[in-house]
Structure formats: C-alpha cells, structure tokens
UniProtKB/TrEMBL annotation, chain A:
UniProt GO cellular component terms: mitochondrial inner membrane
Source species of the chain: Tremella mesenterica (Jelly fungus)
Localisation: Mitochondrion inner membrane
Key word Membrane present: yes
Alphabetical list of SMART domains matching this protein: L51_S25_CI-B8
Stretches assigned to coiled coil: none
Superkingdom of origin organism: Eukaryota
Record's protein name: NADH dehydrogenase (Ubiquinone) 1 alpha subcomplex 2
Membrane topology listed for this record: Peripheral membrane protein
Predominant location category: mitochondrion
Functional description taken from the UniProt entry: Accessory subunit of the mitochondrial membrane respiratory chain NADH dehydrogenase (Complex I), that is believed not to be involved in catalysis. Complex I functions in the transfer of electrons from NADH to the respiratory chain. The immediate electron acceptor for the enzyme is believed to be ubiquinone.
TrEMBL record, chain B:
Entries under PANTHER family matching the protein: NADH-UBIQUINONE OXIDOREDUCTASE 75 KDA SUBUNIT, MITOCHONDRIAL, RESPIRATORY NITRATE REDUCTASE
Name of the featured protein: NADH-ubiquinone oxidoreductase 78 kDa subunit, mitochondrial
Single GO BP term: ATP synthesis coupled electron transport
Residue ranges constituting the 4Fe-4S Mo/W bis-MGD-type domain according to the UniProt record: 247-303
Family: Belongs to the complex I 75 kDa subunit family.
One GO cellular component term noted in the UniProt record for this chain: membrane
Keyword 4Fe-4S: yes
Recorded superkingdom: Eukaryota
Organism: Tremella mesenterica
Requisite cofactors: [2Fe-2S] cluster; [4Fe-4S] cluster
Keyword NAD: yes
Length: 99, 738
C-alpha cells in the first residue's frame, strides 16, 4: 500500500469512492479503504479522500486533478489488491480527463 | 427561568425516573381484532378506540384529541356507541377492546354529537366573519357537518365572556372563542416545556392562561396556534393578512437551522404569507420552531434585487452583463492565482450552488474553499473524508431511545429546537438522563452540569467521578454523545473529538452496533453538511495564502478582518447584510422560498425544497449565476440544466440526490473514522470555556435579522423587555384597521 501512497502525484487533489454499505461487489473497495486509508493520508495530508457510502451504488473511484480535471474507474467486484492497482493506474495515467 | 428548572427537578423527584407525565404510551403488545361499523379491524393492544375507528375508515369528529399529545377526553365530541355499553363512550379515552362492536353512525351517536355541538356553541361567539381561523376552523367545519341546523339559545344574560391574555408577540388570544380542549396546555407542558401554561377554575369558569401576567417564553410557541381547533389562539404577525382559500401551498424545507424541518409555504402572488409545518415523522413530526415559522417577513426587507457594482463608496445598480464583466476584470486585475482565489460558503448556501462554486474554483486552480465560521479557513477538525465524522449519526427519530445523553458545547434548544423537543419527550416518557459540558442554558429537561471546557470533557471520560450522571453513564445501554458544531470552531475541537472518539471506541459494544450509533455531531447551519459531503473545505496549504480575490456565497457571519482591503470581493446572496458591505460587486441570488434546491440536514438526509414564489427583481437562482459567471470567466462548466447538475452531484456523492432518505455509513467505516479522530496529533485540551454559538435565537441569519417579527421576539424573549398590552384596548385598536 505504501507504494501507492507514495506514488500519488501532487497534482491529484481529490480521490472519491462510491460504495455500497452491504453489497459483495463493494467488499474489495471497503477492505482497501480500511487497510490503506491512514497510510495514504499520512503521506498525502492535503489530499481529499472522500468515502461516500450509498445503498446499492456501483463501487467507483473518481480522481480530480488540478484545474478540475476528473476521471473515474469502476471497481465492481474487484478484490483489495485489484482495487489498489486500478487506483494506481488511475492516478498515474498520462492522458488525464480522457478516461 | 431559574424557578422553572427547579420545578422540573421537583417533578422528576416526585414521579421518579421512568414516568414523568401522568399518562404514558403503553409499550406495544399483541394485536387485537374488533368490529367498527360492521368492518373487522386489527390494531395493536392499547390503541385508543378513536384510532381503531380511523383504521377502519370511520371518521370520528374530535376537538381535544390529538395523536401527538396526551389524552384529555374533555370535549366529548368523539362519542361512539359500543355494544353492551349503556351510554355512548368517548372513543379517545377508551382503549380498543378485543371483540367489541363499535358503531359510529347510529342515531344515538348523531344525537350525542349534535348535543355536544350545541353546548360548545352555546358559549362560542358568532364572529366567524372576523375570525382568523375562518376556513380552517374545526368548530366551523364540524358544526356544519355534525351540528344542529337551528339554535335554541335565548339566554338574556348573553354568552360567557373571558378576558384575553397577552402571551407575547407571536400568539394572539381571543379567549371568548376557547372551547377548553386544553390542547395548548398539553403541548406547552409535554413538548415545549413551558409548565406555567395551565388552567384555572372549573366548569364554565375554566380559563387557560399563564396564571400571572407574563409572556409565553418558548421557541416552540407558534405550534399552539396550529393546535387550537378554534380561533382562540391565532397568529399575531399573520392577523387579518389572508384567508386560507386564497393561498397557494408549496411543500418545502426550512433552512434556518440544520434540522431540515419540513414546511408548507403559503403564498399569495409573489409574497410568502405564512409558513406552516408539514408532517414528517422522521424529522420534525408535526412541529416547527418560531424562527422557522415567523422569519418569513424578513424575505420582504433588505433584499438585493439588482446587481450592484461599487463605485467609490457607493453601490451603483448595474446590468448582469456589466456586473459579471466587472468580476472578470476584478479577477484579472487582482492578479490572483491558485489558492489566492478564495471562496467562502455561508450558512444559507444551497447544495447546487456549492457544487457549482466548487467546480468553478477548482477549474480556476484554487483549493481555497472555506466556510463561514470561526476556523473555517483551515480544514475542519472532524475531517470530511468519512461521513460519520461530521453527521448526526444517531438519527433524529432515534434519539428518543437514548437513555443517557451527554451534550458537549451545545444548546439544542437554540441550535436545533426540534431535536430539543424530542429530548423533552424522552425525558418525560422514558426518564432519559442528560449531562452537559459547556455553557448552561435554561433547559426544558433536567440536566447535570459536568463542566465548562474541553479539559472538563477529557476529565469526564478519564475520571468520571461519582456524580449521579457519571454512574448512569457507565451503565447506560444506549448512551449518546452529541458534540455541538461550535466545539469544532474553537482550537480545542480536535482535542475534544479525540477524547470522545477514544471513549466511544473503548465502549464500542454500547456505542456502535447495527441498531445504535451513539456518536453524533450536531450541525447548526443548513448548508454545512452539504459542504462537507461535497468536500467544500480548504487544504492545509491554502489556509496560509493571503487571498486576492474573495467570493462570498451567502456568507454573512465572517470576521471582517479576514478580508484584506486590497482584495477584490464578490458577494452573492439575497440580503444586504454583512457580506454585501464588504463587496465590490453584489450579485442578487434567491432565498430558500424562491428556488428548488437540495438541502442536506445534520443527519445527512437529502431533501428537496420547492419554489413557492418567484425571486424578486433581477435576482436569479444561485447556481445559474455561478454557471453564467463560469462562462464569462472562460471556464464554462459542463452542465446547462438542473438535471445535468444533479447528475454531477451524484458523481460527487450519491447521497446528495437520494432524496428523503438517509444513507447511514456502515459500522466498519464509522469505526475507521473514529480511529482517525482518536489518532489525531493534537495539542492538549485547554481550560477555555465553551461559548454558546447562538446568543440570540431570533437573530441568527440575514433573513431573521431582517424580520420585524423576529426583532419583536428578540426584544420580548431574549432581552425580556415586553410590556403586556392592555389586551382589550389592543382589540379596539386592531378592530379599527381590520
């Protein structure tokens, strides 16, 4: 997790997670948040890491870069490790705002 | 007020804990079946017969009975016939019995109702034509439906005459019309906590009053006007203003505190004529506070109706185009870059405009999104990452289940009067116990004062001592800690949260489970929960930047020294209050009655307000102003209509558009949130005393500050400066212009 925490570029201003409180499709995202939240916050104190739970929503991650550019990726049914790598890919993508 | 709290305490001792009223609701038991008008109906045991009749679809007329009040059984209008009963029975005071046969539509019942009606009308004045209750009067309606068609009243002595009482600037009395149903007395005692409204005398001489000449000092007093089935208690500010049939009714949401009370806005033409409660059992039941009800006249005064541009030391009316161009030039000339562009979100900003403002400022490269509160320039102590850290997690409807409540730095009576009434209910019915750390206030329930400062809070959790409340707290099955929003506006905020979260985590089994969450933050501003949900907060680095361009969105509570004189300031809002004074450009927005927008209450519940009247003059809906500005600033936002904007809000947080429901954070993430708070590196809690954030309940925001009624209430109740008028003299004065 620490690698992901360190590899978040400074241009990333906000990461948002949508997930469901109960559904199995959100389990991986929840595990990821529980295990890596403090690590990510410790290395990126200025990063907003908004966790928004709502019943039945599709688990998703949104990333906002500087100047309001956003992209997102679906995390439905992924396990904790896959969530980490999907997020890693998302924050480090070269063509921001295209995805 | 001292006398009152002593009285509360005495009552509590007298009745013991657990039952502080004479009548309490019975716990739910097995269902029973009975027959009403030949129709079988199944209701829980202990249900009043009148409710069983309602369940069977038979309407029973009533005056004194009200579902949310104690049962009195004194009007006798609800008489029904029960098989094998020698006389008709009052269905409100009679429990439904299994197997009984009830008739609500027999000649005996008709005759009984007609008789009761005749007795009530014998002493009721025939002044319907000049009575404000006309058109919504239970007595009028029921005499038409159930009463006799002719009078037998030929008394030479005339009707009973009762002197009017002056209850203050809100409730107007006309006691001749009183039918002594005692709904107001029961409300004042059980819900509002004004135990000195009562009855004197018996029979024909029974009178309702305060015993001595004094005002009814309660923030809930307006509700007795709604409860009064006749025109004895009517509204002073609304006296002779309109008739119910000429009003357009719009269901909406109140924004003057963070409870999100459901209201009905009655308007005529472009004017809001009055505000009434709308029933929502999950939020405000059937009540609203007096500010919600009577601050509406503030919507008429001090309004910004046209864009204004500062020229020297005066404001010049301008076109929208000119005003927006001036802002563009102001932004360029100020040379503001990145975090030097600062936004301040006030108490009355709606969710749509907050979203638009955040998106626009993010596009301009700024993260400096601050809140209109002390310490609003730095990230909030609660954090905004996990929703359970800043919401009222317990839920408003569930707080009645708490057996021990610890209030930290909050006065629920003024910050959330509706929540306070629920506490009064649980105090009376369930014998809940309350402790307070913070500034004292005249409470409507018994409180044990445990301390004044953050340090006292820490001490209470580490060494609770041997006080009565401390003992109860240790044993409580459903303990509840409520931290007031003002605590986070002091330097001790993080320390208090740390102590609280440690305590909650150490007692997880009692505080956090699937049924109960005993950790709640009480917000007091309507926009705050929405701002946190959106992530409308500054970053740690942005707070150290000196702003050059400031955008005030409904911000009227800030400290003027936080605005550098060299900066370019834009104010967007509906009232010319503090914010407009410091502005270079004022943009007229709409008030809450003039726009259909989303409001997130302190529980995180999304509710949709609705447009009752059009915005005055050239003012516009707030999010549209910001959308237009984004175009002028060459950063167009990707949404053109409100549906696209709400799609964007879904992308930010689905909870913002899940209307009328509450998305409760899961227990796991709630624990994570508490862990984050408990591991916070923070300085020691100081011994500085907590201060009440609301000194004057009736003047808290631009709308209530502009309201004449609220000014009168502030004078009468907050300052205690009210000279009871000679009521009969007052009546003649009113009659002259009626």
């Amino acid at each position: 997790m620490t690698t992901l925490a360190r590899s978040i570029p400074r241009t990333v201003k906000e990461i948002r997670f949508h997930l469901c409180q109960t559904s199995p499709a959100s389990r991986g995202v929840r595990q990821f948040i529980l295990s890596s939240y403090s690590g990510i916050k410790a290395s990126n104190p200025d990063l907003k890491f908004l966790v928004r739970e709502a019943a039945g929503v599709e688990p998703k991650a949104f990333v906002r870069w500087e100047r309001g550019v956003e992209s997102s990726t679906g995390l439905s049914g992924l396990n904790e490790k896959d969530v980490a790598s999907a997020l890693n890919q998302l924050v480090n993508q070269q063509t921001v705002g295209k995805a | 007020m001292f006398a009152r709290s002593r009285f509360v305490a005495r009552r509590a001792i007298k009745f013991g804990s657990g039952s502080r009223t004479l009548s309490t609701t019975l716990p739910r038991r097995a269902d029973i079946t009975l027959t009403v008008d030949g129709k079988e109906v199944t209701v829980p045991q202990g249900t009043a017969l009148i409710q069983a009749c309602e369940a069977a679809g038979a309407t029973v007329p009533r005056f004194c009975y009200h579902d949310r009040l104690a049962i009195a059984g004194n009007c006798r209008m609800c008489l029904v016939e029960v098989e094998r009963s020698p006389k008709p029975v009052a269905s409100c005071a009679m429990p439904a019995m299994p197997g009984s046969k009830v008739f609500t539509n027999t000649p005996l019942v008709h005759k009984a109702r007609e008789g009761v009606m005749e007795f009530l009308l014998a002493n009721h004045p025939l002044d319907c034509a000049i009575c404000d209750q006309g058109g919504e009067c239970d007595l009028q309606d029921q005499s038409m439906r159930y009463g006799s068609d002719r009078t037998r009243f030929h008394e030479i002595t005339g009707k009973r005459a009762v002197e009017n009482k002056d209850l203050g600037p809100i409730v107007k009395t006309s006691m001749n019309r009183c039918i002594q149903c005692t709904r107001c007395v029961r409300f004042a005692n059980d819900v509002a906590g004004v135990e000195d409204l009562g009855t004197t005398g018996r029979g024909n001489d029974l009178q309702i009053g305060m015993y001595v000449e004094k005002v009814m000092d309660s923030e809930m007093s307006g509700n007795i006007i709604d409860l009064c089935p006749v025109g004895a208690l009517t509204s002073k500010p609304y006296a002779f203003q309109a008739r119910p049939w000429e009003l357009k009714k719009t269901e909406s949401i109140d924004v003057l505190d963070a409870v999100g009370s459901n209201i009905r806005i009655d308007s005529r033409g472009v004017q809001v004529m009055r505000i009434q409660p709308k029933i929502n059992d999950e939020v405000n039941e059937e009540w609203i506070n007096d500010k919600t009800r009577y601050a509406y006249d503030g919507l008429k005064y001090q309004r910004l109706t046209t864009p204004l541009v500062r020229e020297g030391d005066r404001f010049v009316p301008a076109t929208w185009e000119h005003a927006l161009e001036t802002i563009r030039h102001g932004l360029i000339n100020s040379g503001a870059k990145g975090d030097e562009i600062k936004a301040v979100a006030g108490h009355l900003a709606d969710t749509e405009s907050l979203t638009t403002l955040k998106d626009l400022f993010n596009k301009l490269g700024s993260e400096n999104l601050t809140l209109d509160q002390p310490f609003g320039d730095s990230p909030p102590a609660t954090g905004v990452d996990l929703r359970s850290n800043y919401l009222f997690n317990t839920g408003i409807e569930n707080i009645e289940e708490a057996d021990a409540v610890l209030l930290i730095g909050t006065n629920p009576r003024h910050e959330a009067a509706i929540i306070n009434t629920r506490f009064r209910k649980s105090f009376l019915r369930r014998g809940a116990n309350f402790g307070l750390i913070g500034e004292t206030f005249p409470s409507t329930f018994e409180l044990e004062h445990l301390g004044q400062s953050a340090k006292d809070a820490e001490t209470f959790f580490s060494k609770p001592g041997n006080g009565t409340f401390a003992k109860i707290w240790k044993e409580a099955k459903k303990p509840l800690i409520i931290v007031g929003s003002a605590v986070m506006e002091t330097k001790d905020g993080a320390a208090v949260l740390k102590a609280v979260s440690k305590h909650v985590l150490a007692n997880q089994a009692r505080f956090l489970n699937q049924e109960w969450n005993g950790f709640s933050i009480l917000q007091r501003a309507a926009s705050r929960a929405a701002a946190y949900d959106l992530g409308f907060t500054p970053s740690t680095t942005s707070s150290s930047v000196k702003p050059k361009f400031i955008y005030l969105l409904n911000a009227d509570e800030f400290d003027p020294t936080t605005i550098p004189s060299s900066s370019f300031v834009v104010y967007q809002g509906h009232h010319g209050d503090l914010g407009a004074q410091y502005a270079d450009v004022c943009l007229p927005g709409s008030a809450y009655t003039e726009k259909s927008t989303t409001w997130i209450n302190t529980e995180g519940r999304a509710q949709l307000g609705r447009t009752a009247v059009p915005p005055p003059g050239a003012s516009r809906e707030d999010w549209k102003i910001l959308r237009a500005l984004s175009e002028v600033l060459n950063q167009p936002l990707p949404y053109d209509d409100v549906l696209a904007l709400r799609d964007r809000m879904w992308d930010i947080s689905p909870t913002l558009v899940r209307y009328d429901s509450r998305e409760i954070p899961s227990v796991e993430l709630t624990k994570l949130g508490l862990q984050v708070l408990s591991e916070n590196k923070t300085s020691q809690a100081s011994g500085e005393k907590f201060k009440k954030p609301i000194e004057d309940f009736y003047r808290t925001d631009p709308i209530s500050r502009a309201s004449v009624t609220m000014a009168a209430c502030s004078k009468a109740f907050t300052k205690g400066d009210y000279v009871p008028a000679d009521v009969d003299e007052g009546a003649t004065a009113q009659a002259s212009y009626a």
